[in-house]
Design goal:
Strand content: over 45%
Number of helices: 3
Strand order of the largest sheet: 27-26-25-24-29
Structural class: mainly beta
Distance between the termini: 35 Å
Number of strands: 29
Largest sheet: 5 strands, antiparallel
Helix content: under 10%
Radius of gyration: 20 Å
Length: 368
Protein backbone atom coordinates (compact mmCIF):
# COMPACT_ATOMS: atom_id res chain seq x y z
CA UNK A 1 0.00 0.00 0.00
CA UNK A 2 1.15 3.50 -0.80
CA UNK A 3 0.20 6.78 0.84
CA UNK A 4 0.25 9.44 -1.89
CA UNK A 5 -0.02 13.15 -1.07
CA UNK A 6 0.33 16.40 -2.98
CA UNK A 7 1.45 19.76 -1.68
CA UNK A 8 1.85 23.47 -2.45
CA UNK A 9 5.50 22.82 -3.30
CA UNK A 10 4.47 20.99 -6.53
CA UNK A 11 5.68 17.62 -5.23
CA UNK A 12 3.92 14.25 -5.11
CA UNK A 13 5.03 12.15 -2.13
CA UNK A 14 4.81 8.37 -1.99
CA UNK A 15 5.16 6.46 1.28
CA UNK A 16 5.01 2.68 1.51
CA UNK A 17 2.86 1.71 4.51
CA UNK A 18 3.52 -1.77 5.87
CA UNK A 19 1.29 -3.42 8.46
CA UNK A 20 3.00 -5.61 11.03
CA UNK A 21 2.84 -5.77 14.81
CA UNK A 22 3.12 -1.99 14.48
CA UNK A 23 2.57 -0.07 11.25
CA UNK A 24 5.58 1.49 9.56
CA UNK A 25 5.76 4.17 6.88
CA UNK A 26 8.83 4.33 4.63
CA UNK A 27 9.58 7.04 2.04
CA UNK A 28 9.22 5.46 -1.41
CA UNK A 29 9.47 8.38 -3.84
CA UNK A 30 9.38 12.17 -4.11
CA UNK A 31 8.38 13.37 -7.56
CA UNK A 32 8.24 16.93 -8.91
CA UNK A 33 4.84 16.32 -10.45
CA UNK A 34 3.62 19.71 -11.71
CA UNK A 35 4.68 23.29 -12.39
CA UNK A 36 2.18 24.58 -9.81
CA UNK A 37 0.68 23.36 -6.53
CA UNK A 38 -1.25 20.08 -6.50
CA UNK A 39 -5.00 20.41 -5.95
CA UNK A 40 -6.43 16.89 -6.33
CA UNK A 41 -5.38 13.25 -6.28
CA UNK A 42 -7.27 10.04 -7.08
CA UNK A 43 -6.39 6.34 -7.24
CA UNK A 44 -7.64 3.06 -8.65
CA UNK A 45 -6.05 -0.39 -8.51
CA UNK A 46 -3.25 0.59 -10.90
CA UNK A 47 -2.98 4.34 -11.43
CA UNK A 48 -2.58 7.51 -9.43
CA UNK A 49 -3.94 10.69 -11.04
CA UNK A 50 -2.98 14.16 -9.84
CA UNK A 51 -4.50 17.51 -10.73
CA UNK A 52 -2.88 20.91 -10.35
CA UNK A 53 -3.19 24.64 -10.72
CA UNK A 54 -1.05 24.22 -13.85
CA UNK A 55 -4.26 22.96 -15.54
CA UNK A 56 -2.91 19.45 -16.25
CA UNK A 57 -3.64 15.94 -14.98
CA UNK A 58 -0.63 13.67 -14.53
CA UNK A 59 -1.02 9.89 -14.59
CA UNK A 60 1.33 7.49 -12.78
CA UNK A 61 1.49 3.73 -13.21
CA UNK A 62 2.05 2.55 -9.64
CA UNK A 63 2.70 -1.08 -10.57
CA UNK A 64 5.58 -0.11 -12.85
CA UNK A 65 6.45 2.99 -10.78
CA UNK A 66 6.65 5.22 -13.87
CA UNK A 67 5.18 8.51 -15.01
CA UNK A 68 2.59 7.41 -17.57
CA UNK A 69 1.54 10.67 -19.24
CA UNK A 70 -0.40 13.93 -19.04
CA UNK A 71 -4.01 14.83 -19.87
CA UNK A 72 -4.49 18.33 -21.27
CA UNK A 73 -8.21 18.82 -21.81
CA UNK A 74 -8.88 21.50 -19.19
CA UNK A 75 -8.20 25.24 -19.24
CA UNK A 76 -8.28 25.94 -15.53
CA UNK A 77 -7.18 24.59 -12.17
CA UNK A 78 -8.12 20.92 -11.75
CA UNK A 79 -10.44 20.88 -8.73
CA UNK A 80 -11.58 17.25 -8.49
CA UNK A 81 -10.72 13.78 -9.76
CA UNK A 82 -12.50 10.47 -9.25
CA UNK A 83 -11.97 7.01 -10.73
CA UNK A 84 -14.84 4.62 -11.31
CA UNK A 85 -13.53 1.06 -11.15
CA UNK A 86 -10.76 0.28 -13.63
CA UNK A 87 -12.28 1.79 -16.77
CA UNK A 88 -13.02 5.47 -16.22
CA UNK A 89 -11.76 8.69 -14.66
CA UNK A 90 -13.85 11.83 -14.19
CA UNK A 91 -12.22 15.24 -13.82
CA UNK A 92 -13.60 18.66 -12.99
CA UNK A 93 -11.95 22.06 -13.20
CA UNK A 94 -12.36 25.81 -12.88
CA UNK A 95 -13.23 26.01 -16.60
CA UNK A 96 -16.65 24.54 -15.73
CA UNK A 97 -15.97 21.30 -17.59
CA UNK A 98 -16.36 17.71 -16.48
CA UNK A 99 -14.32 15.32 -18.62
CA UNK A 100 -14.79 11.56 -18.85
CA UNK A 101 -11.63 9.60 -19.62
CA UNK A 102 -11.19 6.02 -20.74
CA UNK A 103 -8.32 4.61 -18.69
CA UNK A 104 -7.36 1.96 -21.24
CA UNK A 105 -6.24 4.34 -24.00
CA UNK A 106 -6.58 7.55 -21.95
CA UNK A 107 -8.98 9.11 -24.44
CA UNK A 108 -11.32 11.95 -23.52
CA UNK A 109 -14.65 10.31 -24.30
CA UNK A 110 -16.71 13.39 -23.52
CA UNK A 111 -16.20 16.96 -22.37
CA UNK A 112 -19.30 18.41 -20.70
CA UNK A 113 -19.92 22.06 -19.91
CA UNK A 114 -21.23 21.20 -16.47
CA UNK A 115 -21.38 24.55 -14.65
CA UNK A 116 -21.40 28.22 -15.59
CA UNK A 117 -18.73 28.82 -12.97
CA UNK A 118 -16.09 26.49 -11.55
CA UNK A 119 -16.72 22.81 -10.90
CA UNK A 120 -15.87 22.52 -7.22
CA UNK A 121 -16.60 18.84 -6.55
CA UNK A 122 -18.03 15.71 -8.16
CA UNK A 123 -19.02 12.25 -6.95
CA UNK A 124 -19.93 9.06 -8.84
CA UNK A 125 -22.77 6.86 -7.58
CA UNK A 126 -21.58 3.34 -6.57
CA UNK A 127 -23.62 1.88 -9.46
CA UNK A 128 -21.77 4.03 -11.99
CA UNK A 129 -25.07 5.17 -13.51
CA UNK A 130 -25.25 8.61 -11.87
CA UNK A 131 -22.88 11.38 -10.89
CA UNK A 132 -23.37 14.55 -8.89
CA UNK A 133 -21.50 17.82 -9.23
CA UNK A 134 -21.53 21.21 -7.55
CA UNK A 135 -20.06 24.48 -8.74
CA UNK A 136 -19.77 28.21 -8.17
CA UNK A 137 -23.03 28.82 -10.06
CA UNK A 138 -24.97 27.77 -6.92
CA UNK A 139 -26.29 24.58 -8.49
CA UNK A 140 -26.25 20.87 -7.69
CA UNK A 141 -26.43 18.86 -10.89
CA UNK A 142 -27.29 15.20 -11.42
CA UNK A 143 -25.82 13.45 -14.45
CA UNK A 144 -27.22 10.36 -16.15
CA UNK A 145 -24.02 8.55 -17.13
CA UNK A 146 -25.81 5.77 -19.04
CA UNK A 147 -27.56 8.12 -21.46
CA UNK A 148 -24.95 10.87 -21.26
CA UNK A 149 -27.15 13.80 -20.30
CA UNK A 150 -28.08 16.14 -17.52
CA UNK A 151 -30.82 14.57 -15.42
CA UNK A 152 -31.65 17.21 -12.81
CA UNK A 153 -30.58 20.66 -11.66
CA UNK A 154 -31.17 21.89 -8.12
CA UNK A 155 -30.57 25.51 -7.18
CA UNK A 156 -28.70 26.08 -3.92
CA UNK A 157 -28.75 29.19 -1.76
CA UNK A 158 -24.95 29.29 -1.66
CA UNK A 159 -22.00 27.73 -3.47
CA UNK A 160 -21.22 24.19 -2.29
CA UNK A 161 -17.60 23.04 -2.39
CA UNK A 162 -17.97 19.32 -1.58
CA UNK A 163 -20.39 16.63 -2.77
CA UNK A 164 -20.18 12.98 -1.68
CA UNK A 165 -22.23 9.76 -2.08
CA UNK A 166 -22.58 7.30 0.77
CA UNK A 167 -21.10 3.80 0.14
CA UNK A 168 -24.56 2.26 -0.36
CA UNK A 169 -25.67 5.08 -2.65
CA UNK A 170 -28.82 5.72 -0.62
CA UNK A 171 -27.83 9.23 0.50
CA UNK A 172 -25.46 12.03 -0.40
CA UNK A 173 -24.14 15.13 1.30
CA UNK A 174 -23.23 18.64 0.21
CA UNK A 175 -20.91 20.99 2.08
CA UNK A 176 -21.41 24.76 2.09
CA UNK A 177 -18.69 26.46 4.16
CA UNK A 178 -19.22 24.83 7.61
CA UNK A 179 -22.60 23.21 6.95
CA UNK A 180 -23.30 19.64 5.79
CA UNK A 181 -26.72 18.96 4.27
CA UNK A 182 -27.73 15.29 4.15
CA UNK A 183 -30.02 14.19 1.29
CA UNK A 184 -31.83 10.94 0.59
CA UNK A 185 -31.66 9.64 -2.98
CA UNK A 186 -35.29 8.48 -3.14
CA UNK A 187 -36.73 11.88 -2.14
CA UNK A 188 -33.88 14.24 -3.14
CA UNK A 189 -34.74 16.20 -0.01
CA UNK A 190 -32.68 17.25 2.99
CA UNK A 191 -33.13 14.89 5.94
CA UNK A 192 -30.75 16.67 8.31
CA UNK A 193 -28.00 19.25 8.66
CA UNK A 194 -24.68 19.13 10.49
CA UNK A 195 -23.09 22.44 11.44
CA UNK A 196 -19.38 22.55 12.28
CA UNK A 197 -17.57 25.32 14.12
CA UNK A 198 -15.24 26.16 11.22
CA UNK A 199 -15.04 25.72 7.46
CA UNK A 200 -15.02 22.07 6.37
CA UNK A 201 -12.13 21.11 4.12
CA UNK A 202 -12.81 17.39 3.72
CA UNK A 203 -15.23 14.66 4.70
CA UNK A 204 -15.69 10.96 4.07
CA UNK A 205 -18.27 8.30 4.84
CA UNK A 206 -16.81 5.83 7.32
CA UNK A 207 -19.97 3.72 7.05
CA UNK A 208 -23.34 4.33 5.42
CA UNK A 209 -24.35 6.24 8.56
CA UNK A 210 -21.14 7.70 10.01
CA UNK A 211 -19.35 10.74 8.56
CA UNK A 212 -15.79 11.80 9.40
CA UNK A 213 -15.40 15.56 9.03
CA UNK A 214 -12.20 17.62 8.98
CA UNK A 215 -11.78 21.35 8.63
CA UNK A 216 -9.87 24.49 9.44
CA UNK A 217 -8.82 23.25 12.87
CA UNK A 218 -6.88 20.35 14.37
CA UNK A 219 -9.89 18.11 15.09
CA UNK A 220 -11.49 15.11 13.40
CA UNK A 221 -15.16 14.66 14.26
CA UNK A 222 -17.40 11.66 13.64
CA UNK A 223 -21.09 12.41 13.13
CA UNK A 224 -24.17 10.23 12.88
CA UNK A 225 -26.17 10.92 9.71
CA UNK A 226 -29.35 9.86 11.48
CA UNK A 227 -29.10 12.07 14.59
CA UNK A 228 -26.68 14.69 13.14
CA UNK A 229 -24.86 14.53 16.48
CA UNK A 230 -21.12 14.27 17.05
CA UNK A 231 -20.35 10.79 18.41
CA UNK A 232 -16.58 11.25 18.71
CA UNK A 233 -13.93 13.94 18.32
CA UNK A 234 -10.18 13.93 18.74
CA UNK A 235 -7.21 16.17 18.05
CA UNK A 236 -5.39 14.76 15.04
CA UNK A 237 -2.85 17.46 14.11
CA UNK A 238 -1.24 20.71 15.21
CA UNK A 239 -2.65 22.67 12.28
CA UNK A 240 -5.69 22.61 10.01
CA UNK A 241 -6.50 19.31 8.30
CA UNK A 242 -6.52 19.43 4.51
CA UNK A 243 -7.71 15.95 3.54
CA UNK A 244 -9.00 12.70 4.99
CA UNK A 245 -9.18 9.18 3.53
CA UNK A 246 -10.30 5.77 4.78
CA UNK A 247 -10.02 2.10 3.88
CA UNK A 248 -10.46 -1.34 5.38
CA UNK A 249 -7.82 -4.04 5.73
CA UNK A 250 -8.48 -7.43 7.28
CA UNK A 251 -11.50 -6.09 9.20
CA UNK A 252 -9.45 -3.15 10.48
CA UNK A 253 -10.80 0.26 9.58
CA UNK A 254 -8.08 2.85 8.97
CA UNK A 255 -8.44 6.62 8.70
CA UNK A 256 -5.62 8.58 7.05
CA UNK A 257 -5.27 12.34 7.56
CA UNK A 258 -3.06 15.01 5.99
CA UNK A 259 -2.47 18.44 7.49
CA UNK A 260 -0.86 21.79 6.79
CA UNK A 261 1.57 20.88 9.58
CA UNK A 262 3.22 18.48 7.08
CA UNK A 263 2.21 15.26 8.81
CA UNK A 264 0.36 12.28 7.37
CA UNK A 265 -1.15 10.12 10.11
CA UNK A 266 -2.90 6.76 10.15
CA UNK A 267 -5.56 5.96 12.75
CA UNK A 268 -7.29 2.71 13.69
CA UNK A 269 -11.04 3.00 14.25
CA UNK A 270 -13.16 0.36 15.99
CA UNK A 271 -16.53 0.53 14.23
CA UNK A 272 -18.16 -1.27 17.16
CA UNK A 273 -16.96 1.49 19.48
CA UNK A 274 -17.23 4.67 17.43
CA UNK A 275 -17.44 6.73 20.62
CA UNK A 276 -13.87 5.70 21.48
CA UNK A 277 -11.03 7.87 20.21
CA UNK A 278 -9.19 6.14 17.33
CA UNK A 279 -5.66 4.99 18.12
CA UNK A 280 -2.66 6.38 16.23
CA UNK A 281 -1.00 3.67 14.10
CA UNK A 282 1.88 5.67 12.63
CA UNK A 283 2.84 9.08 11.27
CA UNK A 284 5.32 10.66 8.89
CA UNK A 285 6.50 14.25 8.52
CA UNK A 286 6.74 15.37 4.89
CA UNK A 287 7.95 18.88 5.90
CA UNK A 288 5.65 20.27 3.19
CA UNK A 289 2.31 22.10 3.09
CA UNK A 290 0.04 19.23 2.13
CA UNK A 291 -3.07 19.80 0.02
CA UNK A 292 -4.50 16.42 -1.00
CA UNK A 293 -4.27 12.75 -0.06
CA UNK A 294 -5.15 9.25 -1.26
CA UNK A 295 -4.13 5.66 -0.54
CA UNK A 296 -3.17 3.34 -3.38
CA UNK A 297 -3.98 -0.24 -2.43
CA UNK A 298 -1.83 -2.71 -4.32
CA UNK A 299 -3.59 -5.85 -3.09
CA UNK A 300 -7.22 -5.35 -4.02
CA UNK A 301 -8.12 -8.89 -3.02
CA UNK A 302 -7.10 -8.25 0.58
CA UNK A 303 -7.94 -4.55 0.92
CA UNK A 304 -11.24 -2.91 0.09
CA UNK A 305 -11.62 0.82 -0.06
CA UNK A 306 -14.51 1.93 2.06
CA UNK A 307 -15.64 4.44 -0.53
CA UNK A 308 -15.45 1.98 -3.47
CA UNK A 309 -17.09 -1.22 -2.18
CA UNK A 310 -20.27 -0.85 -4.19
CA UNK A 311 -18.36 0.27 -7.27
CA UNK A 312 -16.18 -2.83 -7.12
CA UNK A 313 -19.16 -5.16 -6.85
CA UNK A 314 -20.86 -3.30 -9.70
CA UNK A 315 -17.79 -3.78 -11.90
CA UNK A 316 -17.84 -7.52 -11.12
CA UNK A 317 -21.42 -7.73 -12.43
CA UNK A 318 -21.05 -5.60 -15.57
CA UNK A 319 -23.42 -7.76 -17.62
CA UNK A 320 -26.24 -7.27 -15.13
CA UNK A 321 -25.52 -3.68 -14.12
CA UNK A 322 -23.89 -1.65 -16.90
CA UNK A 323 -21.41 0.91 -15.61
CA UNK A 324 -20.40 4.23 -17.13
CA UNK A 325 -20.95 4.32 -20.91
CA UNK A 326 -20.80 0.55 -21.23
CA UNK A 327 -24.33 0.35 -22.56
CA UNK A 328 -24.24 3.38 -24.85
CA UNK A 329 -20.68 4.19 -25.70
CA UNK A 330 -21.74 6.61 -28.41
CA UNK A 331 -23.19 9.02 -25.88
CA UNK A 332 -19.70 9.82 -24.59
CA UNK A 333 -18.13 10.24 -28.02
CA UNK A 334 -18.40 13.82 -29.18
CA UNK A 335 -17.13 13.74 -32.76
CA UNK A 336 -17.68 17.46 -33.22
CA UNK A 337 -15.32 18.27 -30.37
CA UNK A 338 -12.07 18.77 -32.25
CA UNK A 339 -10.41 20.18 -29.15
CA UNK A 340 -10.92 16.89 -27.36
CA UNK A 341 -9.19 15.02 -30.17
CA UNK A 342 -6.33 17.46 -30.37
CA UNK A 343 -5.72 17.55 -26.63
CA UNK A 344 -6.44 13.93 -25.91
CA UNK A 345 -3.17 12.98 -24.30
CA UNK A 346 0.50 13.87 -24.30
CA UNK A 347 2.85 11.11 -23.24
CA UNK A 348 6.33 12.31 -22.27
CA UNK A 349 9.31 10.04 -21.89
CA UNK A 350 8.40 7.60 -19.18
CA UNK A 351 10.25 8.62 -16.05
CA UNK A 352 10.67 6.21 -13.17
CA UNK A 353 9.51 7.32 -9.75
CA UNK A 354 12.62 6.91 -7.65
CA UNK A 355 13.36 7.37 -3.99
CA UNK A 356 16.01 9.98 -3.18
CA UNK A 357 18.24 7.32 -1.61
CA UNK A 358 18.17 5.24 -4.75
CA UNK A 359 19.27 8.22 -6.83
CA UNK A 360 22.25 8.83 -4.56
CA UNK A 361 23.33 5.22 -4.83
CA UNK A 362 23.25 5.39 -8.62
CA UNK A 363 25.40 8.51 -8.63
CA UNK A 364 27.95 6.85 -6.37
CA UNK A 365 28.07 3.79 -8.56
CA UNK A 366 28.60 5.86 -11.69
CA UNK A 367 31.41 7.82 -10.07
CA UNK A 368 33.27 4.65 -9.11
Amino acid sequence: MELVAGCYEQVLFGFAARPAESWTVVADFTHHAHSASLSAVAVNNRYVATGSRDETIQIYDMKKKIEHGALLQHNGTITCLEFYGTAHLLSGAEDGLICIWNTKRWECLKSIKAHKGHVTSLSIHPSGKLALSVGTDKTLRTWNLVEGRSAFIKNLKQNAHIIKWSPDGERYVTVITNKVDIYRLDTASITGTITAEKRISSLIFITDYILAIAGDDEMIRLYSCDSQKCVCEFKAHENRIKDIYSFEREEQHVIVTASSDGYIKMWSLDLNKTKDVPSLLCEVNTKARLTCLAVWLDQASEMNENSDKAATSSQANEDEKPSIVRKKKVCWTDKSDKTAKRKRKITPEKKRLEAPLQKKKKKRNSST
